[in-house]
Specification:
Blueprint lengths: L4 E4 L4 E4 L7 E6 L10 H19 L3 E6 L6 H9 L4 H18 L16 H13 L3 E4 L2 E4 L15 H7 L13 E6 L7 E7 L2 E9 L3 H10 L4 E7 L3 H16 L5 E7 L2 E3 L2 E2 L10 H7 L2 H9 L7 E3 L1 H22 L8 H24 L4 H21 L5 H18 L13 H15 L3 H15 L1 E6 L2 E6 L8
Parallel strand pairs: 3-4, 3-10, 10-11, 12-14
Antiparallel strand pairs: 1-2, 5-6, 6-7, 7-9, 8-9, 12-13, 15-16
The structure holds zinc ion.
Zinc ion binds next to loops.
């Protein structure tokens, strides 16, 4: 088997994947701050890492994948106050909705653990104490800060210059020694959730009543679960600085293991009308809204049509295109699955079907092994399905064994992208439906559109068959009652 290479932000180059521990991979991806519904920008990020996780597992790695839930945060506190509820209740409610969204788009099933920041307060305190003991952290005006000047490696992930940091960290806090120092433990205002934790400063115990800063939860969680060093840390590219830079600083300074993470993997942004889709810009479309109209598999396919590191300029056309492509895949799969088999056809079709299967297998894994190149991987899936469709259209009967093998290969590749999970394709089209589709095609060629539309309505009402005219030709699909539209 070939080697898997992935782009590491730390070295700014593609590197061979060589886990710290043989075939075992520990992966952490920054998770959701639960104060509102997840939107398409989040979906892009989580689906991208989900595909990476699926591929690593299919490749035979023993992957442990965790994603944190930030349930203590300024935004949660502010939103709870607006809604006359407690931060805890608000966080639980949105966490529940987030989990519903993640299971609808096939992400939740692949994450081993969603640890909450609430459950790691003791670990955060312990890590902050270590940083105090080693001289990296200081208490000032009720806040505990990390002193960046004490950690010369601070800019190794972002590639920034130390004097650039101040420009990006504009929030002025009088207690900071340098404006770019970041908060590890934050003084709580009245009414906010707070923990009266005891810290030892200059051999004297002192209660610092407060709550964790945002960055500390990730390393407290990963250190508790993976230890001070692990294989892959993922997240959106906008987190490189300051969030991930802070994680490296506090983890390597506290535990002394370098590098904290071997491979830093970052996904690109999703933009809408030239701006990043975000809660603060109020230009977001929630996953829920999308799933009212589109199959979750169409959403996944839309994400996978772009490489995970590239930018997606979202418009609804992308979803429509993905949806049409998905329908093409399903109707072709149905034709292939239901193609008649015979012994005598074996010699003629067996060889060609086997060739299609094995080139799909090779092309798909070559693409995925090259920094998870999903656009190429999907292209190989489309090629294979089109070629198989041609074989079954040209032959009244095909070889059964090679056909079954080919379908397995197709479904196996599709499962990495997280598509083709519905099983309606197994039910063959009836002879009447086939002749009606042919008749409709003929009428459309003759420009008798009213007649053609009448057949389309009849197919929908009497046979539950939807017709779509696409760049691939006539595509049909069945509605399903399961999750999402289908
Ligand atoms: Zn994070």
């Amino acid at each position: 088997m070939s080697l898997l290479v992935l782009y590491n932000t730390l070295s700014r180059s593609k590197e061979k994947l060589e886990p710290l521990n043989d075939k075992k991979i520990n992966m952490f991806v920054c998770g959701q701050t639960v104060y509102d519904d997840a939107h398409l920008g989040h979906a892009r990020n989580y689906v991208s890492f989900d595909i990476i996780a699926r591929w690593l597992r299919q490749r035979g790695y023993n992957l442990k994948y965790i994603q944190n839930i930030t349930d203590i945060d300024d935004k949660i506190i502010a939103r709870a106050a607006e809604n006359n509820t407690t931060p805890e209740l608000l966080a639980r409610r949105y966490e529940e909705r987030f989990m519903e969204d993640m299971s609808a788009i096939g992400v939740k099933e692949n994450v081993d653990l969603y640890p909450r920041s609430h459950d790691y307060i003791k670990e955060m305190r312990t890590q902050i104490q270590l940083l105090i003991d080693k001289g990296y952290a200081y208490l000032s005006e009720g806040n505990i800060y990390f002193e960046i000047d004490k950690f010369p490696d601070y800019t190794k992930l972002s590639g920034m210059k130390i004097d650039e940091l101040s420009k990006h960290r504009i929030e002025f806090e009088p207690g900071k020694r340098k404006p770019y120092d970041f908060t590890l433990w934050k003084k709580a205002k009245s009414g906010e959730p707070h923990w009266p934790e005891e810290f030892i400063l200059e051999d004297k115990p002192i209660i610092v009543d407060g709550r964790p800063g945002w960055h500390i939860e990730d390393t407290a969680i990963t250190n508790a679960i993976f230890g001070p060093q692990y294989d892959i840390h993922g997240g959106a590219s906008e987190l490189i600085f300051p969030h991930h830079s802070n994680e490296i600083a506090q983890d390597e300074a506290a535990f002394g293991k370098k590098p904290m993470v071997k491979y830093w993997v970052h996904s690109g942004v999703l933009r809408i009308k030239g701006e990043k889709m975000s809660k603060s810009l109020k230009n977001f479309i929630t996953i829920r809204e999308v799933l009212k109209k589109y199959d979750p598999e169409a959403l996944r396919l839309m994400v996978a049509f772009s490489h995970y590191r590239s930018q997606i300029d979202f418009s609804e056309d992308l979803l429509k295109k993905a949806s049409t492509s998905l329908n093409y895949l399903y109707s072709s799969l149905s034709m292939i699955y239901n193609a008649k088999e015979s012994e005598s056809a074996a010699r003629e079709t067996e060889k060609i079907i086997n060739e299609i299967s094995s080139s799909l297998e090779n092309e798909f894994s070559t693409a995925m092994d090259n920094d998870f190149e999903t656009p190429q991987a999907i292209a190989s899936l489309f090629n294979a399905i089109s070629s198989l469709r041609t074989v079954v259209e040209k032959n009244t009967h095909v070889d059964g064994d090679s056909k079954k093998k080919a379908i397995n290969t197709l479904l196996n590749c599709a499962s990495v992208i997280g598509i083709l999970k519905h099983d309606w394709y197994k039910e063959p089209l009836s002879e009447e439906a086939i002749s009606m589709i042919r008749e409709r095609d003929r009428l459309r060629r003759e420009k008798s559109f009213d007649e053609a539309d009448r057949i389309r309505t009849e197919l929908k009402n009497n046979y539950n068959i939807n017709i779509e005219d696409t760049e691939y030709g006539t595509v049909w699909y069945r509605e399903q009652n399961s999750q999402g539209r289908r």
